[in-house]
Structure formats: C-alpha cells, structure tokens
Design a protein that fits this description.
Number of strands: 18
CATH superfamily of the largest domain: Glycosidases
Largest sheet: 8 strands, parallel, barrel
Strand content: 5-15%
Helix content: 25-40%
Structural class: alpha/beta
Number of domains: 2
Bound molecules: 1-deoxynojirimycin
CATH architecture of the largest domain: Alpha-Beta Barrel
C-alpha cells in the first residue's frame, strides 16, 4: 500500500471514528444538551388572521425561518385562555387554547410541522397562580367552606381593613386582596387577578400534574416553569424585612414602596419537593424526553445548582439569568459569571439567557454607535459558550426595546401602575419585524397591531437582512450552524483566557480529543491588541484558522499578535 493511500485510509478511518463518536454523543446526550431555545411571545410574532394579534398559525407559517437560525426548540409564552390581566400569565383554563391564538387543532399542527423540521415545542406552565376567573378560584371565593377554599391562600386580616402582613406584590404595592363576600384576604405574589395557589394542598399539586400529562400527550417537548421559586410562602405569615441602604434608610422601589427582602415568599425549600414531583411526572409521561426549564432568578450559582436537584432529579435546565442581565458590557463581570456557570454547576449544563419578554432587549448594552457590533458580541457570548442557549425573537435582527411614549398607549399593567418611572414591559414585546412594508409584515396593511410597530422596523427587519453576509441575522445563523457542526463548540469544555484583561473577553472551547476553538470579543469602542499563550493549557496552536470574524475585522494569522477592532469578534480553530 502506498504511503499516500495509507494516509487517505487512516484519515477515512479517523473520520469514521469521529462520526461514530458524534453519533454516540448525540444518542447518549438528551436532545436539550447544547440546544438553542428561541423564545416566542405569540401575540407578537405573526398575525395570520388580521386581528392585530399574533397566533399559532402565524408561527407555523414561519417555521422555515426559525429553522434557518439553527433553533432546536421554541418556548411559547402562554397561549391558554386568559382574561389577559398579565397577557396570558393569568390562565383561566389550563387545557385549552385562547381563541385569539387559534385552536387545539392549530396547536397540534404547529407541533407536527415543527417536528418535521426537528424543532421542539416547549410551553409555559404557570403553577404559582391562576387567573381569578379560573373556575377553581371562582369556587374557592364562593364561600369559606367551599371544598376548593383551601386551593388558594386565604387568611384573616390583622384587623379591620388591615391585610394579614406586610408582603407585597412583585407588580407593586400590597400583595393581599380583600374579599368582602367572605371577609378574608387572598395572597397574590403578582396581580390581584392572579391569586396564588396553595401548593401545600396535595389536590392542587395533582391537578397540575394532570395538566403536565395532558400537554405531554399532545406532543410538547417540555415546559418553561413560570415563577417557579415562588410556589410557597411562610405558613406563619411573618413579615418580610425591609431592605436598607448603607445609611440605614429603607430602599424605595420603582413603585414607591419600601423594598422587602423576599425571604418569606420566594425560594422556600419546599419548592424542591414539588420540582421532584413535577420531574417524575414529566419523565414518566414522556419516557424522559421532556425538558423542564425554570424561570430561576436566584442569587448565586450555588443556588442555581440546587435547582437541578441533589440527585439530578429536578430541573434539567434552570435558566442562568445572571449572564444575560449584567446590564453593562463589563468584561470582568461577564467573565466571572460565565466561569461560574462552567465551574460551579458540577456536571450540569448551563442554560444561558440573553433576554426575554420581561426585560429590556439586548440593546440595553448599546452605545448608540456600534450597536450592531455589540449585538454580535452578545450573540457570541451566549452561543459560543458551553451549554444550552436561549434568546428572544427579534434579537437576531437587532430589534430594539421600544417603550410606549404616552401613558395612554401602555398595555402592560406594570407600566400602568408604575408610569412614568416604570414604563412596563411593552417595549420588549413589540411585533416581529419581517419587512419594511405596512405593519412590518406582522399584520396585514390597514390593521392596527396590538402594540405599535417600532420606527426602527424600516431598517431592522428579516427581509432587509436575509441573504446579506454582514448582517446581524447572518451572524446568528452562522453561529447557530457552527455550534452544531464544530466539535469543540458543540461538545468542548470552556476555559477563560487572559483573565486579567479588562477589554477583551476570550475563552477556549476544547474537546478531550484535542479539538480547540478560541473565541475573543473586544468589549470596547477602541481597537485592542491581544496575544495568547496557550502552552500551559497544552493546546496545539501551530495553525490558526478563522471560522468567523465580524465585518471589517482583520483575520488574525497567529495568536502571538492580533488586533481586535472596536467590538470585534474572532472565532478561531486551532490545530
Ligand atoms: C414571569 C413571567 O415571565 C412574567 O411575564 C409574568 O408577569 C410573571 N412571571 C407572573 O406570571
């Protein structure tokens, strides 16, 4: 056998081994490992029937676009019947679809069409509270001895006109609502129209486990568990502490109330017992194919780790909301949070989140000059790090937060209560920008969408960016593809590099087999010189191959000397 032929054979053998290894990895790893989860706010994605509100058929019609991003799963915020006090997070029927969004048949079609494209549908499950119009609450409120009275948290006041204690609603002011008919107060962590369920009552738990079973049988691939840390309250109803500033004065929040410490109504240990049950039900109903994603605003990586369960028996993907919500392009802070996700979660995989329907979009990091490049930096951090990643519809085309200008235009009750200091969440919920035509292609011409189309839609839209290599959309698509095909980006661990650098965030992804990719992002508006010495890491870096680099960025030839343009990014294969 000639040497050349032998070399070809050994390459083929190696390629076959690698393919087999990749197949093995994908067989063993659950589908959500390394997944890209794309959050859709259904009211705002695509209006297919011209009523100004997005719907399920609209999403189905856009599945090919979603597929083009490399998305593995879509998380739909609530689509259940709802009086819309909190735009769907107040559910009045857990096993139906709100007619505004379509029918159960439309939902089944969405699941089936998504499946054809290898995209899974994850739905929101709101367990902490129902709508006050839900039949359970209507019964519960009907009399003190109704069998469902104990399904919610009812208490006597401290005296006439005085609530049971000082607890507050997340959405402003007191969290207890008086009911004149029965002379008691009910607890609502969120709006008064969202009474908290009593999770100490096993019947409540069983009813919700049946909801889980219902949707898994309909083909959902899992749930995003809303406000999951707030299921329990202190049964003794102790007051919460008032947070004080350095001078000892009470801190006043955006609603003008004293800020409370949240210790009696959030993150109580009992939550974990319920998470284990929810997981058992999901595992049994789906043959371990369903994922539980948690809305887990927690104080530290140690608290986040607990959400996976001591025996890996709670959430598979509690959201790591710390990385995406630094709110400032601060290299040291990003580095330490990503490093914490890499080193502080044991064997668990993080789910990094960039933004969502409750918080200003990615442009909160913008400087007004380099926004598009800053968008690329953020996408690289989220999609180039180890683990699963979640971003929000429209981030990929650079949609910006556009809050209403006038109080009379505000739809989110948070903004109604908090105006003008707190303008609410409408700004991050505006309709998807498909093109520069009427209503940005979201609703037909002549229809008034439920929220106004942002002026920026004229330039930031799918049609304007599609097929153009230097756009933000192209960057997202490329990253989405690369993290599936490149072994180091798909399976590699993560090591922070140049950890004293205050301008450039850089990290290495590497597999045990020796594949290595270096990612470097300039977090500043000035060019930065960087070099990397990877000797101590035992990484082969004789050759540097550019996998991706931002528009205008000079492709580096070696690790010894490179210049990153303002907010420039390079992604390099080392070998
Ligand atoms: C978190 C959801 O993301 C938010 O939109 C909602 O208002 C609250 N939970 C209450 O359900």
């Amino acid at each position: 056998m000639s040497r050349a032929f032998a070399k070809v054979c050994s390459c083929l053998a190696l390629a076959a081994m690698l393919t087999a290894a990749a197949a093995e990895t994908s067989r063993l790893a659950p589908w959500w490992s390394g997944a890209i989860v794309y959050e859709i706010y259904p009211r705002s994605f695509q209006d297919s029937n011209g009523d100004g509100v997005g719907d399920l058929n609209g999403i189905t019609a856009r599945l090919d676009y979603i597929k083009s991003l490399g998305v593995d799963a879509i998380w739909l915020t609530p689509i259940y019947p709802s009086p819309l006090v909190d735009f769907g997070y107040d559910i009045s029927d857990y096993t139906a679809i709100d007619p505004q969004y379509g029918t159960l048949a439309d939902f089944d079609r969405l699941v089936a069409e998504a499946k054809k494209r290898n995209i899974r549908i994850v739905i929101d499950l709101v367990l902490n509270h129902t709508s006050d119009k839900h039949a359970w609450f209507q019964e519960s409120a009907s009399s003190k001895d109704n069998p469902k009275r104990d399904w919610y948290v009812w208490r006597d006041g401290e005296g006439p006109g005085k609530p049971p204690n000082n607890w507050q609603s997340v959405f402003g002011h007191g969290g207890w609502q008086y009911d004149a008919k029965t002379g008691q107060w009910y607890w609502h962590k969120f709006y008064a129209g969202q009474p908290d369920l009593n999770w100490r009552n096993p019947k409540v738990a069983e009813a919700m486990y049946n909801v889980e079973r219902f949707w898994i049988a309909r083909g959902v691939a899992g749930f995003r568990l809303d406000a999951i840390t707030t299921l329990f309250e202190d049964p003794a109803l102790h007051d919460e502490g008032v947070v004080k500033d350095a001078s000892g004065k009470p801190v006043i929040n955006a609603f003008g109330d004293p800020q409370l410490d949240d210790t009696r109504t959030n993150n109580l240990p009992e939550v974990h017992d319920i998470l284990r049950q929810i997981r058992k039900v999901a595992d049994a109903a789906s043959g371990k194919e369903a994922v539980l994603i948690g809305e887990t605003y927690v104080a530290s990586i140690a608290d986040l780790k607990k959400m996976y369960g001591a025996h890996n028996d709670e959430l598979q993907m509690p959201m790591d909301l710390q990385v995406g919500f630094v709110n400032k392009l601060d290299v040291a802070r990003f580095r330490s949070l990503i490093n914490a996700a890499e080193t502080g979660l044991g064997d668990h995989e993080p789910l990094l989140v960039l933004d969502n329907h409750d918080n200003p979009r990615w442009d909160r990091y913008g400087d007004g000059v380099h926004n598009e490049d800053i968008g690329r930096v953020l996408a690289t951090v989220i999609l180039g790090s180890r683990g699963a990643a979640m971003y929000y519809y429209g981030d990929e085309i650079g949609m910006v937060t556009t809050p209403p200008m006038r109080k009379e235009d505000v739809r989110d009750p948070v903004g109604v209560t908090g105006w003008p200091k707190q303008k609410g969440r409408d700004g991050e919920r505006t309709p998807m920008q498909w093109n520069a035509g009427p209503n940005a292609g979201f609703s037909p011409a002549g229809v008034k969408p439920w929220l106004a189309i942002p002026p920026a839609a004229v330039t930031a839209n799918v049609a304007a960016e599609d097929g153009k290599p230097d756009t933000l959309l192209a960057w997202y698509r490329q990253l989405g593809g690369l993290r599936k095909t490149n072994a180091a980006l798909r399976d590699g661990d993560e090591v922070m590099l140049n950890t004293a650098d205050t301008h450039v965030l850089a990290w290495l992804r590497r597999t045990p087999a020796g594949e290595a990719v270096l990612l470097a992002c300039n977090f500043t508006a000035e060019p930065q010189n960087v070099s990397f010495d990877l000797n101590a890491l035992n990484v082969r870096a004789a050759n540097v191959l550019s996998l991706m680099n931002t528009p205008g960025q000079v492709v580096p030839r070696s690790l010894a000397k490179m210049v990153l343009k303002p907010f420039g990014v390079v992604i390099l294969q080392l070998h």
